Input
Amino acid sequence: MRIALVSMPWHLLATPSLPLGILQVQTDQCRSRHEVRSHFLNLRWAEYLYEVTDGAITPHDYDYVANIGVWHGMGDWVFTSALYGTPHWRRERFRAHLAENSLDPGKSEVMAEHAADFITMLAREIVATGPDVIGFSSTFQQNVPSLAMARSIKELAPDIPVLFGGGNCDAPMGPALQRNFPFVDYVISGEAERSYVQFIDHLDGVLPVEEVSGLSWSTKDGATVTNPPRAPQPMNEVPCPDYDSYFSTLEKSPIRSLVKPTLLYEAARGCWWGEKHTCTFCGLNGLTMKYRSRSPDQVRLHLQALVERHRILDIVAVDNILDMDYLRTLLPELAAADMDLNFYYEVKSNLGEADIAMLRSAGLVHIQPGIENLSSDVLKIMNKGVHATQNIRLLRMCEESDVTVDWNYLYGFPGEREDHYTTVVDQLPALVHLQPPAGAVRILLERYSPYFQRPELGFLRRRPAALYDHVYDLPEAELHDLVYQFDTPAMGIGDTAATRLRMAIETWHDGYAGSSLVLHHDGQESPVLVDRRVGWPTCEIRLETGAQAAAYEVLRTPRNPRALRERLAAQGHDREAAEIGSWLGAWKDQGLVFEEGGRFVALATNRPSIKRDAHAGAQPYASQEVPDGGR
Output
């Protein structure tokens, strides 16, 4: 058979499709030999817009819709006119939604004028290649573009089977897609490496449709049937992706000079923390929380092969969390290999100094540590399993090691109070030399999250998010099964406290690049704190006694006053509690320590850092790629 695999907008231009790369290899597991052709229509769409507008719409404009518009259905709306056959479909609702959220539409409306012609042209092109089956990978804003293309293909060639899979197709979303859009013949829900092979074998006549795991399909009377899923697949059985087709397509593209490609890699699926204590707001793992990771040797071999083949050192791991065993197995091997990688990884925030040093030496220089908040009470509500001062310590260590940190300050949790934020916001000016969050964001209610699965946790009332009103023409009951985001009454802090938080973070952003607070040891007994933070007096503060210097050093790890006194006594610096309390009070007033929940942590770094624009393109608590890359 001839198999066409399609990646539609708004997959990022700079990254190959991990699902298509995996399925390209996985096809070899089918009982017969088949020809696979991948179509990167995200690249074709960017090329098309660039050409038909004489360069007025650039890949930068594409990226704006892909990265910023994802939270407002912007990219999906662009293709609604092609899906529904109506120019300017619900344009006024779209405009009203963006205005209500103070969001610039970018060039989305101009793009929408060209969507229908693009779909028609590319549908003809794909059909002309003579495929026996066409598969779409759909995640985030790829749903409506994929549906529009599937509909157009079916109008041209109604006998070609159309298959959907990907993050947008987890149950019950996948079955809802299949029953509401009759031009979608089949949908695979969940991890697809095995199911895809079974499906192709079914089309090849060697396996009954009922035996394709996780497949939604229609009976002769039109009823949707969804087969049971299989158990999650061990990661060592998931092949290294084949990206040759993407890079071949990119090299021939007229926008090649405007795209800096980055490799995607998947070493693990699920979340080892979530297996024990799922973060209350997080729905990223769908129904496959079970944590599985590749062997260190397999990861190293895959990375070496990808880097050598494509001559690219920038890599984004789509894992939800780093396997902690890699700190003593994989990462030392990567450090020893000296590959000069620029690796992006999601980690947990309770790492130590040796851990951060190992990340840096192995090339993991850009991390998303899930900091989320700086109140221990709110972190407890989230089920994060860390103290706020551990988050501060991580920011300080990353500043010292020149590791870029992506994070967002989340609020809006049931049970949080304004006083959880007041004491933190009062201290944010002291953090101006550390990397700020990308912004402050009220949490969304996501499908699969504990908040969604258990309304008694606080979000009793919910409806499909308003953004879907300008994306889908379906009854609310069907939308409830189809969509990922839901609107609820606001919980937690009110607008006044949220505005104060956002303004404090904006001030933090403005001052970060020009700020430093460094502890210098100048060879004398007393170290000096050199303060060059924006908003603070330029000064040098000498820690006058050996006990003070020892205390500040001990506070590189968060401690309460009692633990600090005990540690000092063990070092030969026995001091009264009142004296230590006076030091801590003075240091807090000077912004030299951060205090939260009775614990203190030192804020001065042990060396100046390389300041950089750490948050260009940072996204509110989600990634354009999700784990389960073969889905």
